[in-house]
Write the structure tokens for this entry.
Amino acid sequence: MDFRSDTVTKPTEEMRRAMAEAVVGDDVYGEDPTVNRLEAIAAEILGKQDALFVTSGTQGNQVAVLTHCRPGDEVILEAESHIFLYEGGASSALAGVQTRPIAGNRGAMDPMAVKKAIRGEDIHYPYSGLICLENTHNKSGGKIVPIENMKAIYEYASEKGVPVHLDGARLFNAAVAAGRPVTDFTQYVDTVQICLSKGLSAPIGSILAGSKSFIKEARKWRKRLGGGLRQVGVIAAPGIIAIQEMVGRLAEDHAHARMLAEGLSAIEGLYVDVQGVDTNIILCDIKGTGLSNEEFLDRLRQAGVLAGPFDDGVIRFVTHREITGEHVQQALVNISKALKS
Ligand code: TLP
């Protein structure tokens, strides 16, 4: 029972068949019909003019930073965002930008703090090149950043002519849990990256979407990064199934996450803010067990349950397509036993 991440989901049988049967061509020449179809479908679903198939969420975010910014620009982002914490400093290493982290609340930056952080004209200052949002917000436990929050930030940003990019690795989780179309979120950003390879279960790939001119330039950055692939329809084919057929079922993952959160919080020594579980990520405080993260994870592993370290004394559990309701029940029994022994 692997709760480490929704990235562990394997392609479905239908996806494997689609991979085998995909009609392909050389995508660097723009001649792969399957990639072209995926990009058209994704642009339409995300409410943007155009879209680009990229290898990973990290590549999508970094191509966005590279395309929006010039070296020396400043990127305003949430202090625990994936782009800031988990992309190996790529924004500095590749785009040559500096980052301006703003502390958030449940993953949401205060729009007034963002407004204040946007630089005015002064010879000493960097240009504010980009604002990055993340929804759902991973580090705060899969929280949905409210649409009104995105709107307020977008309005300030637009006034100042600063573009807004959304790391929407799990945007469909937010949309499904909020019961809102995904375009309700994307209307308040200029560009968006979504992952096909997380809860949506494709084996690989992300989409970067935005205006026609932005995607034209982004395509060039992807090429510069060595991301211009050839008969890549074989991996775009499962992406089409992911974005067209796998979104609705994310609600199951959210129900399982709730079930797991409730069960974990009933185990002595564990604490979960059950009401705070918006989507498929659970943060479990284990300090009450007196175990270190390593000891705790080791006990779970021996009991057939995998989870991931997150912070000191905090373990992350993620639900996904390969975790059923029975798995959740079984995992709870096993965890409870493992902590008693
Ligand atoms: N997140 C992974 C790890 O990198 C932490 C996970 O298991 O959650 N944005 C967000 C919000 C993400 O959570 C991730 C992956 C990415 C971007 C990067 O996607 P990939 O792994 O495709 O580069």
In short: The chain has two domains: 6-245, 250-340. The chain has a mean pLDDT of 97. Residues 5, 7, 56-58, 82, 86, 134, 138, 167, 169, 195, 197, 206 surround TLP (CB under 6 Å).
